[in-house]
Amino acid sequence: MSRVCELSGKSGLVGNRVSHAKNRTKVRLLPNLQEKKFYAPGLGKFVKFRLSTSALRTVNKIGIEAYCAKEGIRLG
């Protein structure tokens, strides 16, 4: 399973870990993904997503159906 948010599409990136001596080591910076179930009143059932915490905050604020409509994602 890839480490990509199913709703926002947020994924990891590559950066450098820099020591005091300015030595650079490659490091993967991964999104904070959580698995969460939401109730979709339009479908009348729960839908499960693996989403980033920033997308989770937005879904909690405006609702799962409004978020999917805004992003152009079909539920179900």
TrEMBL record:
<dbReference type="GO" id="GO:0003735">
    <property type="term" value="F:structural constituent of ribosome"/>
</dbReference>
<dbReference type="GO" id="GO:0006412">
    <property type="term" value="P:translation"/>
</dbReference>
<protein>
    <recommendedName>
        <fullName>Large ribosomal subunit protein bL28</fullName>
    </recommendedName>
</protein>
<keyword id="KW-0689">Ribosomal protein</keyword>
<dbReference type="InterPro" id="IPR001383">
    <property type="entry name" value="Ribosomal_bL28_bact-type"/>
</dbReference>
<keyword id="KW-0687">Ribonucleoprotein</keyword>
<dbReference type="InterPro" id="IPR037147">
    <property type="entry name" value="Ribosomal_bL28_sf"/>
</dbReference>
<dbReference type="InterPro" id="IPR026569">
    <property type="entry name" value="Ribosomal_bL28"/>
</dbReference>
<dbReference type="GO" id="GO:0022625">
    <property type="term" value="C:cytosolic large ribosomal subunit"/>
</dbReference>
<dbReference type="InterPro" id="IPR034704">
    <property type="entry name" value="Ribosomal_bL28/bL31-like_sf"/>
</dbReference>
<comment type="similarity">
    <text>Belongs to the bacterial ribosomal protein bL28 family.</text>
</comment>
<dbReference type="Pfam" id="PF00830">
    <property type="entry name" value="Ribosomal_L28"/>
</dbReference>
